[in-house]
């Protein structure tokens, strides 16, 4: 899987403290975190959890909060798709395991 690298402005001082309010933070995103629904910082963790558990409750405000973290619309879309496919895969695997347990067949 590919890795996304994002830099965004923070409200904190820059590392050399010469430019308060203009610090930069860098984040590396790995789509497998969204696929596995684990290891993502906020606000991505919340969005991925919503996609996996309550996709019908996601609002424009949820997407906007994620976009404020410095991600592009395309990056948010990719994360949401990875989260949805990951959840579908987990549900599919659970269903197959239940079917196997009920029928005794692999």
What is the topology?
Elements: E1 4-9, E2 24-29, H1 31-36, H2 44-54, H3 60-67, H4 73-103
Antiparallel strand pairs: 1-2
Helix pairs in contact: 2-4
Feature tags:
single chain, 106 residues, mainly alpha, two-stranded antiparallel ribbon, 4 helices, 2 strands, 11% strand, elongated
User: What is the β-strand count?
Assistant: 2
The residue fraction in helices comes out at 40-55%
Major sheet size, sense and barrel closure: 2 strands, antiparallel
What structural category arises from helix and sheet content? mainly alpha
H-E string? EEHHHH
**Radius of gyration, taken over Cα atoms and rounded to an integer in Å:** 18 Å
N- to C-terminal separation? Answer: 29 Å
Kindly report the average pLDDT value.
76
* Number of domain modules: 1
Anisotropy-based shape: elongated
Portion in strands = 5-15%
């Amino acid at each position: 899987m590919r890795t996304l690298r994002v830099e965004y402005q923070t409200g904190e001082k820059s590392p050399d403290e010469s430019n308060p309010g203009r610090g930069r933070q860098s984040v590396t995103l790995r789509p497998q975190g969204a696929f596995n629904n684990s290891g993502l910082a906020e606000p991505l963790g919340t969005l991925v959890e919503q996609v996996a558990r309550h996709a019908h409750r996601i609002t424009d405000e949820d997407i906007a909060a994620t976009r404020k973290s410095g991600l592009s619309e395309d990056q948010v879309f990719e994360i949401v798709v990875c989260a949805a496919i990951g959840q579908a895969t987990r549900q599919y695997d659970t269903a197959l395991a239940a079917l196997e347990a009920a029928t005794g067949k692999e």
